[in-house]
Amino acid sequence: MTSKRTAHIVSHSHWDREWYLPFEKHHVRLVQLMDSLLDKLEGDSAFKSFYLDGQTIILEDYFQVRPENKERLGEMYHGRPSADRALVYFTGCVSDKRRSECT
Q1: Structure confidence by residue, pLDDT tens digits, 68-92
Q2: In the chain, how many domains are there?
Q3: More exposed terminus of the chain, fewer Cβ within 10 Å: N or C?
Q4: By residue range, what is the domain housing residue 87?
Q5: pTM here?
Q6: Residue 83 is part of a domain; what is its CATH number?
Q7: How far apart are CA 25 and CA 39, in angstroms?
Q8: How far apart are CA 78 and CA 65, in angstroms?
Q9: Could you tell me if 102 and 92 are in contact, meaning their C-beta atoms sit under 8 angstroms apart?
Q10: What angle do the packed helices 23-43 and 69-77 form, to 10 degrees?
Q11: How far apart are CA 52 and CA 15, in angstroms?
Q12: 42-48 LR contacts (CB < 8 Å, sep 24+)
């Protein structure tokens, strides 16, 4: 007898600020991504979450351009009626050559 398997698709981004393009070009793409992501989370009840790979620098970069969306994001994260959605959450370890921190 074969058993059923369940697969989960996780909408996510592993954002590299300067991987193959200069920071400025990635910054433009980041703003476009975050704008459309916030619209999608607000407008589509079937789209429940998005994983930012534990990176908060993404939000700092985004808020440089769109500071008015801090409150919008805060409402999504903190006190909205359908609390089954979270855009930002922190897990895992961040490590590089200089430090290692786990949360």
Answers
A1: 999 888 777 665 545 455 555 545 5
A2: 1
A3: N
A4: 23-102
A5: 0.70
A6: 1.10.1240.90
A7: 22
A8: 22
A9: yes
A10: 50
A11: 8
A12: 42/76, 45/82, 47/11, 48/84, 48/85
Q: How long a stretch of residues is the chain?
A: 103
Alpha carbons 92 and 100: distance in angstroms, whole number: 11
Q: Please, what is the angle between helix 23-43 and helix 57-65, to 10°?
A: 90
| pLDDT score at 42 | 86
Q: In this structure, is residue 29 part of a structural domain?
A: yes
pLDDT of residue 102: 47
Give me the pLDDT at residue 66, please: 96
User: Per the domain annotation, does 81 fall within a domain?
Assistant: yes
pLDDT of res. 9: 87
The candidate with the shortest Cα–Cα distance to 12, out of 32, 33, 29, is 33
Distance between CA atoms of residues 74 and 103, nearest Å: 21
| Residue 30 burial class via C-beta count within 10 angstroms: exposed 0-12, middle 13-18, buried 19 and up | buried
Reported as a single tens digit per residue, the pLDDT across 51-67 is 877 677 888 899 999 99
